[in-house]
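Preliminary data (for renewal application), adenosine-5'-diphosphate complex.
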Amino acid sequence: MNKIDINKSWNYASAAEGTEHIQLKSKYDLFINGEFVKPSSKKYFNTINPANGEHIAKVAQANKEDVDKAVKAARKAFKSWSKLEPKERGKYIFRIARMIQERAKEFALIESMDGGKPIRESRDIDIPLAANHFFYYAGWADKLEYVFPNKSPKPLGVAGQIIPWNFPLLMAAWKIAPALAAGNTVVLKPAETTSLTALKLAELIQDSGLPKGVVNIITGAGETGAEIVNHSDLDKIAFTGSTVVGKLIQRSIAGSKKKTTLELGGKGANIIFEDAAIDQAVEGIVNAIFFNQGHVCCAGSRLFVQASVESVVIEKLKDRLSTLIIGDPLDKNTDIGAINSAEQLATIEKYIAIGKKEGADIYQPKCQLPKKGNWCRPTLFLNVSQSHTIVQQEIFGPVLTIQTFRTIDEVIEKANNTPFGLSAGVWTEKGSKIFKLSKKLKAGVIWANTYNKFDPTSPFGGYKESGIGREGGLHGLKPYLKFEL
Ligand code: ADP
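Predicted structure:
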């Protein structure tokens, strides 16, 4: 193979986005009943930029009393919101979607500053998709009777919604848009390391004129989340996050009237057959595991390569890794940004150490990492087997395990040998193989000759320990409705 060392022949000039025009307050209160109110706890925590450790703002810590205030506001608002003409509900949701589009650049910058993801991703994926979710569900608000004919769909009531830090605004959109379209009101809590875009969304919602109390956004860490889960006047808990917390939530609400959807962890298999278009597949491998620093529940974190093409795929993959640019999330050239928090970096490093200790071969490109902030090189682990901890457990970072297979049956067996079942990818020229695998793989989402493609119209969710219920598409409306037969 004729190799060109792109690193030596090309130098990218820095292309950092300016942040002068974004508006951030130094301190954020809780958004309850359409107003920003001080937390009863009087406590605030810091939100920092994971790329340089700099303090960005202070964020209120909601306690039990605050959760109760937010739930009461949502309960009161539910009376009129659920009775509002559905097409009027739809108009508000459309307005929120349009306003996100108008302020997209500011949202993208804040998302990257607060969470560490490359601006290219927040600009081209997170924020447009968040707007699309509101657009999509706005369209359904006045069509529920047609979607579920003769079933008299009715909203559930008040939903408590808890979201993670990997796609902060997008996850808020996944939760709020279908809930509102179905006529519910909500209390949403973003993750403690990435509260800012949810709080900017609260400002936008205030500007949109949405009736007070329909959306309440309160901030805090796990204890605040637990107060939401345990509140007695909620009809539904929608949670996206780790399987550990998902299990805790299920235990807490067992026996109560609350309905749940849980979108939890994953350990996606990305399967490359010998007949695949190898260059595209290599690009797909990179996108599957290094998109958003691997902080993706559906990441393709287990690679399965057909043995006959193993050496060529690995060589091309290593080459590609050497060209990835790691660094300033606000730089438009950046491919891999900062790890979201020091805690998450410690978790990833723990797994890398376990991988080495258990005898796997590690490969990392020799790229420079910034001095300050939380960084992790893209990492490959070769010579791993099914029993390795790094193959079995979710790492939630830029770490890929690589295994080989010879036959379809073998790869199906290996791919399904996991407690998770969220996603998978299949790379082959043969439609018949795609059909066979998509039937046999136990995963909620299976991509063929692509990976990490998201669309508001398509349902997303998992089997086994990856969760319960679906979000997105018509499937995503159902968990916010009850039916009178
Ligand atoms: P991760 O391990 O990826 O940080 P978590 O599941 O801990 O994911 O966090 C996802 C969301 O769940 C965050 O908003 C977090 O504050 C919240 N959370 C954490 N612990 C609990 C809990 N015991 N009950 C409810 N929510 C929680």
